């Protein structure tokens, strides 16, 4: 397995519905280095799952660029995307059931996930993958998904995502709706994948997962809002100069506040609210969005 990096440049995704469009991603700039582990966090509806589905090649960008390793996903054909998923990218969608065939045993599910792949000699045997996720005992690997506990089912879904020894693992809320014991088991399995050098991108609300990844990237309103490193949060300057300030800034500066931006000699930047225009911007901003 060679770890695979991801590059997003001005990535836009629009769900086109009858009569109106939903802009789910409004220009995401993000670089994930090969071998890095990233937690995507942020409020519900922010665009996290959409971003993950784009990286998985399950959706195509509406605009902007997206590279997954050597693959240019804005240009790739359906066949190329399929080939990418069968060799380079493992995907664990939200809800274990969506990743598993209900009438196959755990081991058969892993073998089946591999069928699409070109036979590669270097692929580890399914039992090795099941050992990694802690499902290798003969009794468990013969069970069907319905016969597993929720935590085991989630780990079986992880094994399926890992079936082709991908360089990039994408997982959407792998620990949601699990009790603490099951959560810790899934956490340990994801951690083992990360430690093996695979690039890992996890959408999560679980701070424990976030703490174990190299980076935490907050998605807000379809953009990268903030970055966390070692427990410290940073705002990120977008390529167009835009910055998402932390929401607590709204407690001291109302939307529409005019800020004077001045670069200090020591390299810090001062944001000074203008007192002269108390409410001027707030209404305007709203109108502009219509
Ligand atoms: P998150 O995973 O951060 O909760 P999503 O990526 O699921 O966010 O959703 C981002 C936005 O796109 C939301 O406004 C959501 O309502 C919308 N959305 C998500 N999936 C669909 C879909 N299949 N059809 C239409 N709109 C969608
Ligand atoms: Mg989601």
From TrEMBL:
Record-given protein name: ABC transporter ATP-binding protein
Gene Ontology molecular-function annotations: ATP binding; ATP hydrolysis activity; transmembrane transporter activity
Record-annotated ABC transporter domain positions: 6-246
Pfam families listed in its UniProt record: ABC_tran (PF00005)
GO cellular component: plasma membrane
Organism: Polymorphospora rubra
Record-linked PROSITE patterns: ABC_TRANSPORTER_2
Coiled coil: none
Keywords associated with the record: ATP-binding, Nucleotide-binding
Keyword Zinc-finger included in the entry's annotation: no
UniProt xrefs under SMART domains: AAA
């Amino acid at each position: 397995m060679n770890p695979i990096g991801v590059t997003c440049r001005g990535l836009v995704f629009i769900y086109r519905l009858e009569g109106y469009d939903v802009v789910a991603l409004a220009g995401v700039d993000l670089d994930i280095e090969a071998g890095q582990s990233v937690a995507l966090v942020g409020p519900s509806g922010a665009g996290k799952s959409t971003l993950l589905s784009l990286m998985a090649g399950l959706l195509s960008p509406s605009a902007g660029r997206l590279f997954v390793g050597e693959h240019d996903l804005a240009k790739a054909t359906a066949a190329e995307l399929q080939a990418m998923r069968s060799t380079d990218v493992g995907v664990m969608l939200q809800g274990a059931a969506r990743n598993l065939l209900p009438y196959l045993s755990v081991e058969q599910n892993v073998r089946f996930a591999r069928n699409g792949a070109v036979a590669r000699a270097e692929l580890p045997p399914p039992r090795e993958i099941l050992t990694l996720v802690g499902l290798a005992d003969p009794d468990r690997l013969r069970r069907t998904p319905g016969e597993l506990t929720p935590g085991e089912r989630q780990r079986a879904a992880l094994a399926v995502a890992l079936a082709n020894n991908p360089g990039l693992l994408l997982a959407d809320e792998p620990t949601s709706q699990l009790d603490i014991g099951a959560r810790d088991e899934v956490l340990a399995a994801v951690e083992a994948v990360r430690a093996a050098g695979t690039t890992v991108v996890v959408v999560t609300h679980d701070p424990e997962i976030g703490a174990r990844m190299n980076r935490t990237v907050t998605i807000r309103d379809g953009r990268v809002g903030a970055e966390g490193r070692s427990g410290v949060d940073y705002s990120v300057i977008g390529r167009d100069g835009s910055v998402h300030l932390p929401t607590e800034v709204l407690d001291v500066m109302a939307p529409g506040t005019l800020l004077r931006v001045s670069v200090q000699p020591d390299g810090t930047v001062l944001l000074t609210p203008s007192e002269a225009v108390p409410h001027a911007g707030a209404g305007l901003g709203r109108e502009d969005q219509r």
